[in-house]
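Researcher: Next entry in the queue.
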Amino acid sequence: MVRYALKNECWRAVIGFESLYSVSSLGRVRGREKILKPSDNGKGYMTVCLYKDGKSYRKYVHRLVAEAFIPNPDNKPQIDHIDTVKTNNSVENLRWATPEENGNNPTTRLLQFKKQSRMHLNGIPANYIASLYGLDNSIVWHRLKRGWSLHKACTTPKRNRSSSKKFEILT
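Model: Structure for this entry, 171 residues:
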């Protein structure tokens, strides 16, 4: 039996795994024996592996919490992390959303603005500078994200990564 309940934490059965797993209002998942350790899916979202009838199922923790605790009368497809912290899966931080609502979250928009504002040189957008050098905008953005200086990003020629090598047949 799991004995590690936190204050103000409530547990409900995981939909589809009712007799096997439960999820808490704070975003923890437990089986019959213990609390499961979530793992990062590589994009910042926490997942757990649930087992049923000899099969494993990887599930997003935020989706388990939302399905168990938050009504979805409008059948919205996505779950928005209100504070944009993907590891904060408490029920108070989640809401059902359309893709537009999810993208228009004020915190999300502020973070996008900050990210885009870093891609300027003295107020001039990187895409404008890329066009002056005759480069593709995506190449310059990729180089700037990797920490290149703007000068190096715009003046270094694009590498030719052609995998097809030309061979001359000698006879």
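Model: The first strand starts at residue 11 and ends at 13.
Researcher: Noted, moving on.
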